[in-house]
Amino acid sequence: MEDKTHLVDEITGHRRMRRNRKADWTRRLVQENRLTVDDLIWPIFVIPGNGIIEPIPAMPGVNRMTVDKAVEAAKEAADLGIPALATFPNIEMELRDETGSNSLEKNNLINLASAAIKKAVPNIGVITDVALDPFTSHGHDGILRGNEIVNDETVEQVARAAVYQADAGADIIAPSEMMDGRIGAIRHALDAAGHQSVGIMSYATKFSSAFYGPYREAISTGGLLKGDKKTYYIDPANGTEAVRDAALDVEEGADMLMVKPGLPYLDICWRLKEAFGLPTFAYQVSGEYSMIKAATANGWIDGERVMLETLLAFKRAGCDGILTYFAVEVARQLAKR
């Protein structure tokens, strides 16, 4: 029999990687990661009023909506199979003050939204944030005293706010203000109020990033911010510090971990999943979303493919799910397959 061995066979030792890529069916058989609707959490923005859907210019396709419209959005999400929503309020400017006191109003906007959504769509998860930036007149995530964001007083307030949010129907509290000790304080407060079943998704590693701009427009804090958030968010240069921060949250009782922003920090997603084994999530933030939308609008990229590729990257990096403004768009695409 004629020997058809090729030089390439000798070079590779008869190992050819392309054998598993030769056809659609083989590629499907060996695919390591898959994106499904179960991986999606949809962040939405809530505003006062009734019957209003308000486009956000910096985030094409994303809207602020009143509670009644948020309920409709929750029904749509549930029908598509999206497991959970993450809600963020844009309250009236006259209700914002130095301490973010409106966060402690039992019937504030975020809590009204939670109650309405859970009543109308009880099978969808509601995730709420207790950071104070939507409630403060200075745009910071905590209480400002002089030139300092005070840690301990902020922790006391967000723990109280977490109880009110749980009372209103929040299933998971996701504290993003990055104060030291907040996870343990929130856990104790929830348990003391009888909310042992309410989980905590810690923004375990929230970086002082340039990717948050469109979000700040969405909740109307961009023009309010005095200074920056570098004294409480993590330096983008610091990976080991981020892991240490997450380790403290794990010790304090976090049920889930989150990395924010997403794509620039895939290494952190992987490190947290490997180190702790907890359910790990990434927040594909507003800047990431808006860049894809802008490049798509200019015809520079295939927006649908890039959207799906970025989300798959989170799965490859060890994430169990992704908070993304693309959630509904992706869910529709997946439903067609």
Task: Walk me through the topology.
Layout: H1 7-12, H2 24-30, E1 40-46, E2 53-55, E3 63-65, H3 67-80, E4 84-89, H4 109-120, E5 125-128, E6 143-145, E7 148-150, H5 151-168, E8 172-173, H6 182-192, E9 199-206, H7 213-218, H8 239-252, E10 256-260, H9 266-276, E11 280-284, H10 286-297, H11 303-316, E12 321-324, H12 327-335
Parallel strand pairs: 1-3, 1-4, 1-12, 4-5, 5-8, 8-9, 9-10, 10-11, 11-12
Antiparallel strand pairs: 2-3, 6-7
Helix pairs in contact: 3-4, 4-5, 5-6, 8-9
Please give a structural write-up.
This protein is an alpha/beta fold. It has a single domain (36-335), classed as Alpha-Beta Barrel (TIM Barrel), CATH 3.20.20.70. The chain has helices at 7-12, 24-30, 67-80, 109-120, 151-168, 182-192, 213-218, 239-252, 266-276, 286-297, 303-316, 327-335, and strands at residues 40-46, 53-55, 63-65, 84-89, 125-128, 143-145, 148-150, 172-173, 199-206, 256-260, 280-284, 321-324. The protein has an 8-stranded parallel β-barrel, surrounded by 9 helices. Strands 6-7 form a two-stranded antiparallel sheet. Helix 9 (266-276) links the parallel strand 10 and strand 11. The longest helix is centred in the middle third of the chain and has 18 residues, at 151-168. It starts with 6 loop residues before the first helix and ends with a helix. Keywords: Heme biosynthesis, Lyase, Porphyrin biosynthesis. Belongs to the ALAD family. This is Delta-aminolevulinic acid dehydratase.
